[in-house]
Amino acid sequence: METIISVKNLVNRFGNQVVHDGLCLDIRRDEILGVVGGSGSGKSVLMRSILGLQKPTSGTITVLGQEIEYHKPGPSRCWGVLFQGGALLSGLTVQQNVELPIALHSDMPVETRHELASLKLLMTGLSLSVADKYPSELSGGMRKRVALARALALEPRILFLDEPTAGLDPIAATAFDELITYLHDNLDLTIMMITHDVDSLFGICDRIAVLVDGGVVVGSVDEVLDSDHPWIKSYFGVPRAQRARRAAREST
Amino acid sequence: MNNAYLSFESLPDKLIVNVKGQWVFDEVLALEDATASVLPEAGQAVLFQCAGLEDIDIAGAWVLYDRTEQLSELGIKSRFAGFKAAHFKFLQHIIDAAAIREYEDPTEAVERPGLLRKSVEELGHSTTTYIEDLGQIARSILDGVRSPSLIMIGETIKQVYFTGVQAIPVVMVITFLIGIVTAHQAAGQLEKFGAAVLVVDLVSISITREMGVLLAAIMVAGRSGSAFAAALGVMKLNEEVDAMRVLGLNPNQMLVIPRILGLVIALPILTIFADIAGIAGGALIAVGSMGISGLQFVERVAYSTDLSDFYVGLSKAPVFALLIAMVGTLRGMQVKSSAEELGLKTTMAVVQSIFMIIVADALFATLFTHLGI
Questions:
Q1: Alpha-carbon distance B121 to B179, whole Å?
Q2: Do A187 and B29 touch (CB under 8 A)?
Q3: Nearest CB to A119 within list B24, B58, B86
Q4: Are strands A66-67 and A58-63 parallel, antiparallel or unpaired?
């Protein structure tokens, strides 16, 4: 399996608090990697380090064979990011939000740009009647879909999702999981997903990375479940995780 | 006619177009040019032979699909062949999306009212909310007076510190400098009449009656008016204000009143400091470069300037403070949805409070002249 992102000996320290202590993680082509961990275990810090938003104390991160440098903009063309709250630009309409990255990174004529942005909106399951609305006029679930459309605007090969189903009702969350699987299968995407939604963890992730003790335990769902680290045991031992696992098993 | 993306074979009844190379986002412009050259002769159908395709994404697939649509509008049939499954799924997205678009109800455009109507509506709306807000604030002032809570008093003291005490250095520096400037300008003119000593009168009267309080108020409007609007605006966006309401706390009482009261206490104090610094600035020039002795300066100030001049200046401070704090907090509370709006309201808070300070000052000047103070 080809490695798309490789994190080596990552150390992140804030004052006396050590978040990552020599963390190593490889993300493989075409997989959906779920990242879990307790509060303060450094899930977001890991993602921000990979994205070049935060300089780690030490360690190297390579994305598609290119090392991330923190004083330069990263290879933003090859990845799309869905932030937790969507992070849509509030002064622009939905259509403009999706068109913006295309306009910045290409010299396509306006009509082409417009068409491609509309396509992305349709692909994420939105109706084009939302195109002229402002983000503040949309529901939380729709905002996430628009943010996903924007993340896909530049045809990325890697998608980062920060708690994509947080704050959505079960119906919307399931639909969003289906959307992610569909896009993953059809757009050849590699996905790294921070999530606490055990349903999506068991339902759609190929591998799971658990951040514990400054390091990471990574493997397929069954491998991670076999781990005897106390935190992992208690995380997957709670009734809701058990139920989600049973449900995922039954559906496959 | 052949190029990096397409090559052509013309048969009597069809034009075979071999699609090859990289059909990706970065190549879209070149791809559009290339597909525009797919022009079959009369009676020819078009067959896109896609086996040689190396890579494709949504953007590339769209260009290909768009050309077939254009051809079918011209009445030319076209079809695809030889697609690899890994490539065809990208085209399938486009076909799906086109189908959805056809079945979707015609999108009713979101109605955005015209500029005139919008501005009139906004004016009316903001006037009514303004009146409503003023009423609410008046009511919570009454509530606050009737049952003062400890939290409110603590908040007020905090605001006096933030808006008053912390602003003392900057207000003193600017009024000191303005004192210097006034003295310099006046000296140049008055020395021509041999009345250099009147510089002292001019500086002390203008600073105590007008400049001290005005400069302090404008500084505070920029410093604290914006801070009020921004702080309350972010609280609104974070739903903190709603949380207070649900907890049974009155946000006016918790947030607005302490800021208004705090500023009403702080600005008069700042004005006193401003007056002192302004006269000190005048003294520096008078004593330093005009040969007036320190004792002479003090005597002249005492002779020319009444305590009433000082009170005239000071009496305006609470009014200015009220204007700044009300505009700032009201604008902050009006933030509803977005970061953009927050910036807009903060700007409005500063501009409007400075405008209102100067209008009020003009009214005061007329009033005091009529009263002969």
A1: 46
A2: no
A3: B58
A4: antiparallel
C-alpha B335/C-alpha B102 separation (Å) is: 39
Side-chain half-sphere of B204: how many Cα atoms within 13 Å?
22
Tokens of B205: 């009267």
What is the domain extent for residue A33?
3-88+157-251
Query: What does the pLDDT average to over A42-65?
Result: 86
**What digits encode the pLDDT tens for the residues B153-176?**
888 999 999 999 999 999 999 999
**Count of residues for chain B?**
373
Which of A107, A136, A152 is closest, CB to CB, to B337? Answer: A136
Residue A100 lies in a domain: no
pLDDT digits (tens, 9 = 90+) for A91-109: 788 999 998 888 888 888 8
User: A186 CB near a chain B CB, below 8 Å?
Assistant: yes
Contact A155 B59 (CB under 8 A): yes
Domain count, chain A: 1
CB contact under 8 A, B110 and A119: no
Q: Angle between the B85-103 and A170-187 helix axes, to the nearest 10 degrees?
A: 140
Instruction: Flag whether A244 is in a domain.
Output: yes
Residue B358 pLDDT level (bands cut at 50, 70, 90): very high
**How confident is the model over A105-145, as pLDDT tens digits?**
888 888 888 888 988 888 888 888 888 888 888 888 888 89
Which among B313, B322, B314, B307 has a CA at the least distance from the CA of B357? B322
> Tokens in use for B58?
């949504």
pLDDT, average across residues A200-215: 87
Is the pLDDT at A75 greater than 70? The verdict is no
Task: Inspect the interface and report whether the beta carbons of B338 and A136 lie closer than 8 Å.
Answer: yes
Instruction: Say how far apart CA B279 and CA B295 lie, in whole Å.
Output: 14
Contact A119 B90 (CB under 8 A): no
Residues 100-139, chain A, touching B (beta carbon < 8 A): 106-109, 112, 115-116, 118-120, 122-123, 127-129, 131-136
Which CATH number does the domain housing residue A75 bear? 3.40.50.300
Residue range A32-61: average pLDDT?
Answer: 86
Task: Match 């056809």 to its residue by tokens.
Answer: B102
Token code pair at residue A103: 């306009």
The model's confidence at residue B110, banded by pLDDT at 50, 70 and 90, is low
Cα dist. B157→B20, B146, B356, B370 in Å? 74, 19, 26, 37
E-strand ranges in chain B read 6-10, 14-23, 45-56, 78-81
Question: Is A133 a member of any domain?
Answer: no
Q: Residue A26 pairs with which residues in a beta bridge?
A: A6
- In the three-class reduction of DSSP (H, G, I as helix; E, B as strand; rest coil), residue B80 is classed as strand
Out of A107, A127, A185, whose CB is closest to B104?
A127
Ordered domains of chain B (ranges, CATH): 6-103 (3.30.750.24), 115-371 (no CATH)
Yes or no, beta carbons of A129 and B92 under 8 Å apart = no
DSSP one-letter code for B360: H
Instruction: Provide mean pLDDT across the span B112-130.
Output: 84
Please check whether residue B361 touches A, CB under 8 A: no
The predicted pLDDT at position A72 comes to 64
Per-residue pLDDT for A71 more than 70? no
For residue B145, count other CB atoms closer than 10 A to its CB. Answer: 9
pTM to 2 decimal places: 0.70
Residue A93 lies in a domain: no
